[in-house]
Amino acid sequence: MNNHPFHHTQTAHCESGVISNLLGHYGLRISEPMAFGIGAGIFFAHLPFVKVNGVPGTTYRIWPGAIFQRVCSRLGVKMETAKFSSPEKGMAALDTVIATGTPVGLLSSVYYLPYFPPSYRFHFNAHNLVVYGKQNGQYLVSDPVMDTVTEIDPESLAQARFAKGFPAPKGKMYYPVHVPDVASFEKPVKEGIQQACHYMLKIPFPMFGVKGIRYLANRVKDYPAKVGERKSALYLGNVIRMQEEIGTGGAGFRFVYAAFLQEAATLLKKDELSKLAAELTQTGDLWRNFAFSAGRVCKSRAADNVSYKELSEMLLQCAAAEEAFFRRLAQVKF
Amino acid sequence: MKKEEVPQDGDNLHEGTFKQIMYAVDNSGNYVQVQSAGWEPENIALTQAWEEVNDRVEQARKRVLAGEISPVAFYMEKNIMDLALLASYVGKFQWQVKRHMKPAVFRRLSDKMLQRYADAFKISKQDLLQVK
């Protein structure tokens, strides 16, 4: 659709970052926070029965792919997506598309990405990156969490795209076939905000949204008694990683969402939203305090009930702050 | 979080090569992107996760050398896989992979099966047969 070179911008989160970079290539300028907000990416869930390497799952964001799909449908972007039954077919299809100069988004496993810092290479299968060309047999990669563009050899890319496990990427690739020249963000912003409030406040199960934070708080309190010192520290460590590790922008996406609200305030000329952004920043700081204390508990291996009880209370504070925040956000009249 | 408060605790976990983007507010309260070299709690949690992995690998190594389990179990841990993941890589049921972790069963595996395990672990067949 156009021939100018692909412009890479480093972002905090891979999914909203790929959206921002890909749509920007077609002249639809959308910042990472804006994509994250329109896609209603902010969320919370604690799922003790979904174990990853034996550790209960916690998430601060909506499930992978949801942000993408929501942004596209709200902005009227048409995407071509494809999955493949074999690496050969998947790599051939990729070659055909990039030969036309179209940058392609790919789902991959970070475990097989050689340019990734080794310390981060676990079997995480929902990483998004863009391949925008091929040179001397190497694929040119714009990975949104990396500082600059990089390259990857075909074998590693095939392994990353066709990693097994859950969810299996099955070589999923996607690229825009229609991007509107002008898109009004106003309605998508409203819809995104309303959806985020709904997910944080209204899901009638205890593991999701604000309820989910309280649910985690209650479980953290009993970790030392229930699973012992070693596992308590591992469980807690996983919560910290989901909150602060690469891709969250800090405080489990709370700061990205606050940045979105700030941008939305200017866009919709609503001062209310920038006040709410400031409030969410404070809530984010509460989360950071929790992570800091939790880190200290992990390190000292102090599996006494007192420290876990204190952490549990900090989580309850976060829950209270988020509940107040989302209730106010839900009442903003557009 | 203020811009100046964005942590820079490198801790050399990523060999100083990697910085991630954080969102923080500047003096006038506006959000900006700031690069961060890392943060203490995250580093602790990540180090702890790797210690757990290395522990499991070491345990498995000892048990292979003691003849209790086959190299399949060792390389599974080394590749941070679990039974379900390894089974899907080699195209077998989990109970079959579990059987292959018995040294007696492992010794009788066909060349084809050994090759599949070697491919799943991205090593050669010779490497699969011996654990150092």
Q: Descriptors for this entry?
A:
heterodimer, A: 334 residues, alpha+beta, Cathepsin B, Chain A, Four Helix Bundle (Hemerythrin (Met), subunit A), 2 domains, six-stranded antiparallel beta sheet, 10 helices, 15% strand, B: 132 residues, mainly alpha, 434 Repressor (Amino-terminal Domain), two-stranded antiparallel sheet, 7 helices, 2 strands
Written description of the protein model:
The complex is a heterodimer of chains A (334) and B (132). Chain A is an alpha+beta fold. Chain A is built from 10 helices and 8 strands. Chain A has helices spanning 14-25, 32-38, 66-75, 87-99, 154-161, 186-201, 209-244, 254-268, 271-300, 305-330, and strands at residues 42-52, 55-61, 78-82, 104-108, 127-135, 138-142, 150-152, 173-178. In chain A, the strands form 2 sheets. In chain A, strands 3-8-4-5-6-7 form a 6-stranded antiparallel β-sheet, sandwiched between helices. In chain A, strands 1-2 form a two-stranded antiparallel ribbon. The model of chain A has no long low-confidence stretch (mean pLDDT 93). A two-stranded antiparallel sheet of chain B has the order 1-2. In chain B, helix 1 packs antiparallel against helix 2 and helix 3 (83-90) packs across helix 4. Chain B folds into 2 domains: 3-38, no CATH class; 48-129, Orthogonal Bundle (434 Repressor (Amino-terminal Domain)), CATH 1.10.260. By secondary structure, chain B is mainly α. In chain B, strand 1 (20-25) and strand 2 form a beta hairpin. Chain A: It comes from Chitinophaga solisilvae. Chain A: This is BtrH N-terminal domain-containing protein.
